[in-house]
Amino acid sequence: MSDAFTPVAKLADIPDGGMIQVRLDGTPIGLYRVGERVYAMNDLCTHEEAFLSEGYFDPDELEVECPLHGSCFNVADGSVRILPATKPEITYEVRIEDGEVLVGPPRDPKE
Ligand code: FES
User: Is this structure's pTM higher than 0.70?
Assistant: First the structure.
C-alpha cells in the first residue's frame, strides 16, 4: 500500500453514525462516520474471521463490536477494549476533500 491518499467513498455514502466496508488494494477497510469525521480501520477482526463493519458501531464511544464473539475496538486508534481479541487493529489516516473520503497510510497499531 502506498503513502498516497486514495479516494475510496463519498462522505454521503456513509450514514452518520454508521459504517461501510471499502477495499483498498484488496484490503477490506471499515469506514466509520461521526458527523463530518471519518475513521478508517482494518475490517477483518484480529481474533478470527469476521468483518467488524457487520457488527455494531457506537459513535458516542467510537467503538465497534465484532458480530462473531463480541470483541470491541476503538475505531480511532484500533486498540482492543473488550476481549477475546487481544491484538489491535491497524487504522489509517483519513482526509475528506470535496465530499470524498480519502484513505492514506496505516498508523502504527496501539496496544
Ligand atoms: S472474530 Fe471477532 S471477536 Fe472473534
Answer: yes
